[in-house]
Amino acid sequence: MKNTKFIFVTGGVLSSLGKGLAAASISALLESRGLKVTNQKLDPYINVDPGTMSPFQHGEVFVTDDGAETDLDLGHYERFTSTRMGKSNNLTTGQVYFAVITKERHGDYLGKTVQVIPHITNEIKDFIRHTAEGFDVAIVEIGGTVGDIESLPFLEAIRQFRNEVGRQNAIFIHLTWVPLIKTAGEVKTKPTQHSVKALREIGIQPDILLCRTENFLSEDIKAKIALFCNVEVAAVFTAKDVNCIYEVPLIYHREGLDAKIVDLLNIWTGQPRLDAWEEVVQKFHNPAHEVCIGIVGKYVNLTDSYKSLNEALVHGGISNNCRVKLKFIDSEKVEAEGLDGKLDDVDGVLIPGGFGIRGIEGMITAAKYAREKKIPFFGICLGMQMAVVEYARHICGLGGANSSEFDPLTPYPVIDLLPEQRNVQDMGASMRLGAWPCVIAPDSFAFDAYGQEEISERHRHRYEFNNDYKKALTDKGLRITGASPDGRLAEIVELKDHPWFLGCQFHPEFKSQPTNPHPLFSKFIEAALKYAQSTGKCK
Fold first, then answer.
1. Which of 229, 292, 322, 381 is catalytic?
2. Is 311 a catalytic residue?
3. Contact criterion met (CB below 8 Å) for 490 and 463
4. pTM of the predicted model, to two decimals?
């Protein structure tokens, strides 16, 4: 095993400070210096994975090529680096205890009493080592907040890990909060002091402090934080609020964070190459055009539920020199109230994925509106399925058509359960998951986007286009332009007599990056921009 260096990222004071974004940005900076990096997320919840957790509670479930249902922070890691994440990049307390109990049942511990220390902590350390194999640097993010009881085994494990590999091979970076009290015009360092105190009480002294705050910290404030937190002044960095998350690596570099990291870890690297990130930020802040995309979904009250989707739309805007405004529309309200002008000001309609019957009739209404008004339409997973249901009902004369997920007694189950899903009882990790191949038909929106016949995209669903109704729908104009190599599974549907109308069963948002926007999002935004220009909304 090569001499991998380790960076452990913790967070304190409160949640939602942006540890995942910080870890991803550090990865981007080190990769820009020519290092091979990977990321890991250690989550303290007891769920084996987030696959069965509500998006309202946990946010988006990110899916990897190998079919892992993971924390949304792995999406940040993939958007900021070239390294692909997988099952080994996300570890939960549930996975750790499951593994240890399985070993105990097998007799692997030779009758010993199984304890948090050393058995749980050893399992965590083994995971960290295994995932890091073959990389120059592994950035390990500890979920939760310092002081939470749930995180203690992970924190104890990384404390031990540092002692085992040595100080030049592992460092601790602590993200904390320095609030600005606007009425007094002062920044307050006390939350950071208390956060570091809690970390030191469990045996971890941070090497670097990332201070989340509104403005760049003065040298005096940095000196104060350094004094009370027992770190060098040169190891206190501003993690400034930004309007564009892709500016974070540039802010960190400006502050000297990457230089400090390579110094502490005694790594030789080339100079960072950040041209691509600077170009992304420039295009984000200074676009020539603007479009508005209406997202009609059921989780719109928590936008983190659509984190990758939102970012992929931004990426599509960057590739078209265009600012993308997102208008979130609750499909339940559409269902209850009708559209009532809700989509009058949009240049494109997107219906995202989801599960359960709530709000689906609102999605169907939105799909019908986009089809009839010739507004660019993009349906993803459930969005594609509801577009098929809408077409079956209103164009093919199949009244009452539906997905059997929502109406088991529908006379026309145009969307039905996958055959291999019929006997599945367990809920976790039992869907069609991960990367699957797709063959694209020529002379289609999809082929125009991808520019190739064979692609691979990530899936997360149980229900599928029902081939029993393939002829009835295609005879009336629905095109199946993407399918599995054996032709059994419909992957992409389109309408030819429409400026841009496409639904896909997979989740293209999971593979989009700011420096490499996904082609379907680029083409969708391009179509929205043409629509805006044709209607006089955009010059």
1. 381
2. no
3. no
4. 0.93
